[in-house]
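Per reviewer request, we include the raw input and output of the structure prediction for the construct analysed in the revised manuscript.
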Amino acid sequence: MLDPSSSEEESDEIVEEESKEVLAPATGARLSPSRTSESSGGLQPSSRSSSVRPSSPSPSVVSEKEKEELERLQKEEEERKRKLQLYVFVMRCIAYPFNAKQPTDMARRQQKISKQQLQTIKDRFQAFLNGETQIVADEAFINAVQSYFEVFLKSDRVSRMVQSGGCSANDSREVFKKHIEKRVRSLPEIDGLSKETVLSSWMAKFDAIYRGEEDPRKQQARMTASAASELILSKEQLYEMFQQILGIKKFEHQLLYNACQLDNPDEQAAQIRRELDGRLQMADQIAKERKFPKFVSKEMENMYIEELKSSVNLLMANLESMPVSKGGSEFKLQKLKRGHNTSIIDMGEENENQLSKSDVVLAFNLEVVIMEVQGLKSLAPNRIVYCTMEVEGGEKLQTDQAEASKPMWGTQGDFTTTHPLPAVKVKLFTESTGVLALEDKELGRVVLHPTPNSPKQPEFHKMAVSKNCPDHDLKIKLAVRMDKPQNMKHCGYLWVIGKNVWKRWKKRFFVLVQVSQYTFAMCSYREKKAEPQELLQLDGYTVDYTDPQPGLEGGRAFFNAVKEGDTVIFASDDEQDRILWVQAMYRATGQSHKPVPPTQVQKLNAKGGNVPQLDAPISQFYADRAQKHGMDEFISSNPCNFDHATLFEMLQRLTLDHRLNDSYSCLGWFSPGQVFVLDEYCARYGVRGCHRHLCYLGDLLERAENGAMVDPTLLHYSFAFCASHVHGNRPDGIGTVTVDEKERFEEIKERLRLLLENQITHFRYCFPFGRPEGALKATLSLLERGLMKDIVTPVPQEEVKAVIRKCLEKAALVNYTRLSEYAKIEENQKDSENVGRLVTPAKKLEDTIHLAELVIEVLQQNEEHHAEGKEAFAWWSDLMVEHAETFLSLFAVDMDAALEMQPPDTWDSFPLFQLLNDVLRSDYNLCNGQFHKHLQDLFAPLVVRYVDLMESSIAQSIHRGFERESWEPVKSLTSNLPNMNLPNMNLPKVPNLPVNLPQMPSFSAPSWMAAIYDADNGSGTSEDLFWKLDALQTFIRDLHWPEEEFAKHLEQRLKLMASDMIESCVKRTRIAFEVKLQKTSRSTDFRVPQSICTMFNVMVDAKSQSTKLCSMELGQEHQYHSKIDELIEETVKEMITLLVAKFVTILEGVLAKLSRYDEGTLFSSFLSFTVKAASKYVDVPKPGMDLADAYVTFVRHSQDVLRDKVNGEMYIERLFDQWYTSTMNVLCTWLTDRMDLQLHIYQLKTLIRIVKKTYRDFRLQGVLDSTLNSKTYETVRNRLTVEEATASVSEGGGLQGITMKDSDEEEDED
């Protein structure tokens, strides 16, 4: 690297920046890498470094440590040199790209979420849930955020995704959006508020929570800047990026940048031409020496040479299509473009492409600025003067007029010419004052011959004075600027002599012209000529410095251009001009040999001579500095001598590491700038595409195996490329395949298969919540591609299905194992104080229910987030169903164990059944599946046993209840029952009955009881019966038994049970009714007891409950309902008959008392005499009215009680109809029996009162007129009317105003 003596110069010449960053090494071998020098202050020789260590008891150990340390340092130094060399190649790719461009169509990567950011986000959402933010939200949104926080943000799978670098802000937003869409859709419709509005509002609130207190404008500006850097990078940004990637220091970059002349497009284009020429020579050498890589087929060796040459030809074509100078005009000779490429490859056709003079066309822009004139003394101060300017062969321009006392202008004239040595004429005129003068007077002129190398600043030039001008010392200040055209690479005066051209040693003006990327010519020009006088096409020439040639006078610094059979000698007037000419011609010839100036050779031979070369150009100064710092070997190294496959592998690996550690969730995708540099490197230095993608796949697989998240689509692209290459099915034709590529591909293919199977097995953790989007689908597609034996033959679907099925079987075990471990951790956290105690059956069941909730959550997440696989395979859903069944079968083992621990005849496990069944029955795929049937088989005996016990319990409660029944009305049953707080989940309500059965579960009245039993109803026994039957049926119905046949059987059994129980209740009530009536009074003192009304209400309730409890939906199963209905109707009918019979008995008792007054009886005569005798002395009460009033009171009271206490309106109406009819029948019969007798006045008055009041009261109770005005009533009415008329005639005022006419309706009641 460095010569040891170079360290002595360094302190004098190194710039300040460098002195801060690097320490002078003692020798090149001991130069430390940058990271080591910063910590140790530069490495010392090994002997010196060992002396500062404390002495070790064993010298051999010390020497061993020194050896290891030395080896480590050597490795680090070699690594540093490799990176510097690699950086040189990368710099050249960035400086002058001619193959690749930065892609603009790549998907923009999202900002990555780090661990710290995830914690910050969690804190922000927790603050919102705690009400510590100003964000206003409704309960539905808060619940959604709570669920998102618990399920997503606190998930260990999200933490793992953040750790893998695959979690972006967009992922968390999309998961929340998906999370709330179902919630919003299930909300009730609100007029004027669409669901989309709610969604957008919720998302805006989510963004506000996520962003926290940050200013959104700052964040947007930051995002915009980062997004721009993610798209297109400038050269400076690319340099800086790869300095970071390769660990290159800034001062090293500056040294290399300047020494490589990266800002000089001509030098870079020349470097490329030399590289391509070297690659062609290398291809010829390989073909000559037969040193081929090992190919899978011997026939590929010749194809390999063709590949090498065609790749170089493509690069040459790309270079040829570049502008002559980057950023300048795109001047090139189209007719030479195609032909010249062939001339480089086939030198035999060289003479066919000789340049002619007309092919070389130059165009120059001149700026002539006239500043002022000095020495103008002979003219009067007020005389007008002006100047003209022209380029020979062009138009003439004139300045403004000025007074002779102040001849200043500053006027600029712009000209265009094709002459490399134009003649610029400037003349000074004064206006003629003579009357006859036709032209203005010329005072002086100057003729200049500028070149592009001429000074650009204004200078005074002596003017040639005209004869008539007395001022002989005229000077004019001019600035002439001649621009250098893009295709002119250098120009100036040289002495030259050649064999075929320029045969005489003479000083000529030369221009080095680039006609195209591969065609350069040395052209000599004369003044005022557009075409060159002679030209030399530089193809095949080699330029180099040479010693002065004896016999050639003129010129001080010599160099020559040599070709087989021709030598052209050039000489310049100074050393710097020679170096510039040689550098320019060196770029043009494309030669591999790099000329070294004699001054540099002398300096190297002098070993540190400190004599500065003042005539050397700045590029030489940079080259010297680079050499002094040990960079020369990297700059001057021939790229063709390097193993670019290995170098590129290193570059790509380091670039990938840098990319995975930046702030973007890249998933392995390079940034556009990185893709651009890697593409350019591969094309320029001939890295095989298959090797590139194999290395890339290897690197990506290594990262993925270590937990990083890699986009399977990216793996798919590279794998498809390598597969098509190895199997010989490339789109661009069959290419050569090395044995190494094939073996490496097979190795990577196997690694990829294992990785993909592992990812599918752990799909919940590799693709949590379906993120990254589409990754699972891409993984499945890639696995199918990886299973293909070649690129054409598709793999049988059954084979793919078998592999994925096996993965999903493992996935079920993985998921359930992790889930159960998570559940155990949760339980341990809750019950930390109970550690060490025995697990009770109840605790085991509680844990199993919690585990079932987690299992359901996993199944729902799989369906929601991992269903995208069916887009890749139609049968993915079937496999996911199998996976779910396997997953549930694992849970079934724990569930069975928990249920076996439960004591017999306990019902606490029903909530577990309902929880699982509600989910399974609503899932089309899992309904009546393997696990679902197992669940039914497990619980069916339990349900049957439960129903058996309930049936026995209800039967006993009926028997015992009616034995002790008081027939008092029941108020509201629910007012005396305790409330039970149920959990949030929909658990079944298991009825509890007050009988001595083993371990009957606790139960409270359901919430619907209050609404139904809100009034005075039947007896306690009947209410209890109906409630229990309804609760039992509701419970069984809420089980939603999935198997139709068993569900139908359960329903049928419960309906039959209800029918039997209600029948028993009705019959017992009927018997009690009859017994109760028999015990009551038969006189008008009789009052309808409350128990009679309660029994009627039992019938009413039985009627209404039987409709619900005994009827089935199936048409043929109505027999239970119709049977019990008939029984109830018959029983009610009998009860009404019995009650009416009771009422009739009372009426008959009243009529029996009236019978005493029958005409002709002893008691009647005696009673009449007594009343008449007594009425003379005292006011005798009206006979019979108190009897009538007592009966009327009895009737009215009974009507009121029945109307008020009995709930069945229909039954009351039937009762009243039958009662009224029976009453009239009894009265009619009694009157008929006395058809031949005249009614006693007292009989008549009593009957009139009873009939009229009965008629009126029953009409008020709603008895229909058709019933009221029956024939019986008419018969009674007519008889009483006739009797009333007879009595009026015979008795006079004996009726005391009592009449059958309607006028007495206003009579006051007693």
